[in-house]
Amino acid sequence: MSARLPNVAGVLGLVLLVVWAGSDLYRSSLLVTMLTYALVALGMYVPFVLAGSLSLSYSAYAATGAYAVAIGTAHAGWPLWLGMLVAPPVAAIIAVVLGAATMRLSGFYLGAVTLLFAEAFIQLLGNLGVTGGPSGIVGLPLLSFGGWEPSPQQTVLMAVVLTGVLALALDRLRRSPWGVVIRASREVPIAVDTAGVSVSVLNLVALGAGAAIASLGGALFTTYVGAVNPETFSVNVIFLAVFMPLIGGIGNPWGAVLGAAIVVHLTLNVDSLASSGTLLVSLSVLVILVLFPRGVLGFAGTAARGGTTLLTTVTKRGART
Amino acid sequence: GSSGDDDNGDTVVIGLVCDTTGPGAGYATPACTATKETIDQVNADGGIDGKKVKVVQGNDESDPTKTPTVIQKLVSQGADALLMLTSSAGVLQAKSLIERTKIPVFMPVAANPQVTEPPSNTYLYQLGTPTSDWATVYCAAFDSLGAKKVAFLQDSSPSQVQFNKGLIDSLDCVDLDVVNGAIDATDLSAEVAKIKNAGPDAVLVATQNANFDVLAQNTLHQQLPGVPRFTELLLSSLPSAWAQAQPGALEGLVGLAGTTDTNTRTVEVAQFFAETEGADFRVNNFWTQSYDAVQILKQAIEESGTTDGEKLNAAIQEVTGFVASSGYPGFTLSFGDDKHLGADGICGLVLVEWDKDNQVAGPWSGYEPDCAA
Amino acid sequence: MTTADPLLSGSGLSKSYGGVHAVSDVSFTLHAGEVLGLIGPNGAGKTTLVDLVTGAQDADTGELVLTGSPLRGGAAHRAAQGLARTFQHPQLALDLSVADNLLLGAYAARHRGLGRLLAGLVRGILRPHAPADRALAERLATSVGISGLDRHARDLTLGEQRLVEVGRALGAEPCVLLLDEPFAGADAHGVAGTTRVIEVLRGAGHGVILVDHNVDLVTTLADRVMLMERGRVAFEGSPADCLASPEMQRVYFGTAPEEVAS
Amino acid sequence: MTALEIAGLFVRYGGALAVDDIALSVPPGQVTALVGPNGAGKSSAVLATCGTVRSTGEVRLDGERVDGWSPGRRTRAGLALVPQGRQLFSRLTVRENLLIGADQLRLPARSVAAAEERFPILAERRSSLAGVLSGGEQQMLAVARALMGRPRALLLDELVTGLAPLIVQQLATTVRALADDGLAVLVAAPDLVGLRDVVDRGYVLVRGRVVAEVEGGHRPLQSAYERALGLAVG
Amino acid sequence: MVGLRAGLRGMTNPQLWIAVVENGCFFALLGLAFYFNLTGAGFFNFGIGAIAMAAAFTGSWLVTEHGLSRPLAGVVGVLGAIAIAVVMELAVVRPVQARGEGELSALVAVGASLFTIIQLSGLFLGHEARSGQPFWSTAPFSVGSARVGSTVVPIVVITAALFTLSYLALQRTRLGRLTRAIGNDTDAARVLGLPINTARLLSFAAAGLIAALAGITFAGRSGVSPDNALHWTITGFLALVIGGTGTVWAPLLGGALLALANVFIPFYFGGDVLAYGLVVVAMLFFAFRPEGVFAPRVRV
Ligand SMILES: Nc1ncnc2c1ncn2[C@@H]1O[C@H](COP(=O)(O)OP(=O)(O)OP(=O)(O)O)[C@@H](O)[C@H]1O
Ligand SMILES: Nc1ncnc2c1ncn2[C@@H]1O[C@H](COP(=O)(O)OP(=O)(O)OP(=O)(O)O)[C@@H](O)[C@H]1O
Ligand SMILES: CC(C)C[C@H](N)C(=O)O
Ligand SMILES: [Mg+2]
Ligand SMILES: [Mg+2]
Question: Are A48 and E111 in contact (CB under 8 A)?
Answer without folding.
Answer: no
